[in-house]
Write a structure and sequence with these properties.
The chain has 399 residues and is α/β, with parallel strands linked by helices. Bound molecules: nicotinamide-adenine-dinucleotide and magnesium ion.
Length: 399
């Protein structure tokens, strides 16, 4: 698709959103911003809209609309300001938009990402929590509405690049032919070598100090606990129709090999590059062509050696919990994700110890198993279980 694309960037003020705008600005001949959205940093949203010429912005409420107006440079025509969650989903499905970058953090991004899939858009999916919470529903929407789904998470983007040529950017119903295993790499985060007993007093600043990637705070904590890799195993399961026993995780502290695909004949294909999200973002925006992303060359001689090791599930209980949830089914995945969001938020605001994050998730998974079985056939079903899990986790007295 080398035609001109008008892009809605949902979550434009975040880490992925900023990188997306950087890439779009490099290619005015083929990319333009259609819409931007933000939840809290409204003044930054106004700067982004002024710089990119976005005709539409979406803010959460009327107070944010007033803040946007107050921040807008005098004398310039205001963009159309849409308000609320429904407006966000409608914007993702807007006929004037070709491509949607789903870069909101958490299950809050699910309704708009799903709306984009149902409208048959090119969907660039960074928001992994949407797939964790509603994998079956989301992939069905992609299939039924002919959406073009391109993974932006660096590991999944790497796998997509290493799959056999001819794999469509959509929703496969079975694993790609000839593929034996997917190998997801993980940096191991800032506490890879720490004594687990020392983690009791970890601060949000320490947990967010990722050795290789600069990211939003929630995903940084998820990387430290390795729940992020667990979410990515679930994400890979849905994106590539791959059973859990054929998805392996490998610690690779340098974050140079972004992931790998192993074939039946023993071949292993890897995608390498600098740890800069503009590479997978440009891949998604340019697909099937390659765009200049602003990322420089990879100097392998400078690295000298690349290391790999098996993750220690004792040290990273959250990774095991995610595998357990994937095997247990969709309801467990909703509970895993919602409980983690509550726990991470509580940790980041100083209400929960770092070491309690896996305990909150474990309690929520046990709670979910005690419930009578639920159907998760609709967005409303998923959101109801997500809300019930948050209420349970929030009432634990831990969070
Ligand atoms: P971030 O915290 O930097 O940004 C989040 C964005 O979402 C912001 O624009 C914020 O305004 C918006 N937002 C937050 N809560 C919202 C709500 N309730 N409703 C509407 N909008 C809301 O996060 P990030 O690091 O850019 O990550 C975004 C997503 O991409 C996450 O799902 C993350 O897992 C995924 N991802 C990020 C990276 C990375 O390098 N940062 C890599 C891979 C995947
Ligand atoms: Mg990732």
């Amino acid at each position: 698709m080398s035609r001109f694309q008008r892009v809605a960037v949902l979550g434009s003020t975040g880490s992925i959103g900023e990188s997306t705008l950087d890439v779009i600005a490099r290619h005015p001949e083929r990319l333009a911003v259609f819409a931007l959205s933000a939840h809290s940093r409204i003044e930054r949203l106004a700067e982004q809209a002024a710089a990119s010429g976005a005709p539409v912005v979406v803010v959460p409420d009327t107070a944010a609309r007033e803040r946007f107006r107050a921040a807008w440079p005098a004398g310039r025509p205001l963009p159309e300001i849409r308000v609320g969650a429904q407006a966000l989903a409608d914007t993702a499905a807007d006929a004037a938009c070709d491509t949607v970058m789903a870069a909101i953090v958490g299950a809050a991004g699910l309704p708009a990402a799903l709306a984009a899939a149902r409208a048959g858009k090119r969907v660039l999916l960074a928001n992994k929590e949407a797939l964790v919470a509603a994998g079956a529903l989301f992939m069905r929407a992609v299939r039924e509405h002919g959406a073009e789904l391109l993974p932006i998470d660096s590991e999944h983007n790497a796998i997509f690049q290493c799959l056999p040529r001819g794999e469509r950017a959509g929703a496969p119903s079975e694993p790609a032919r000839g593929v034996r295993r997917l190998l997801l790499t993980a940096s191991g985060g800032p506490f890879r070598r720490h004594d687990p007993l020392d983690l009791h007093d970890v601060t949000p600043e320490q947990a967010c100090a990722h050795p290789n990637w600069s990211m939003g705070r929630k995903i940084s904590v998820d990387s430290a606990t390795m729940l992020n890799k667990g979410l990515e195993v679930i994400e890979a399961h849905w994106l590539f129709a791959m059973p859990p026993e054929r998805i392996d995780v490998l610690i690779h502290p340098q974050s140079v090999v972004h992931s790998m695909v192993e074939y039946e004949d023993g071949s292993v294909l890897a995608q390498l590059g600098q740890p800069d999200m503009r590479t997978p973002i440009s891949y998604g925006l340019g697909f099937p062509e390659r765009l200049d992303s602003g990322v420089g060359p990879l100097d392998l001689a400078r690295w000298g050696k690349l290391e790999f090791e098996t993750p220690d599930m004792q040290r990273f209980p959250c990774l095991q919990l995610a595998f357990d949830a994937l095997r247990a089914g969709q309801a467990a995945c909703v509970a895993l994700n919602a409980a983690n969001e509550v726990a991470v938020e509580a940790f980041l605001s100083g209400r929960l110890r770092y070491t309690w994050i896996p305990r909150v998730i474990t309690a929520a998974l046990e709670w979910q198993q005690r419930q009578s079985s639920v159907t998760l056939d609709s967005l409303a079903d998923v959101l109801a279980l997500d809300a019930a899990t948050r209420a349970y986790a929030g009432n634990l007295g831990l969070a």
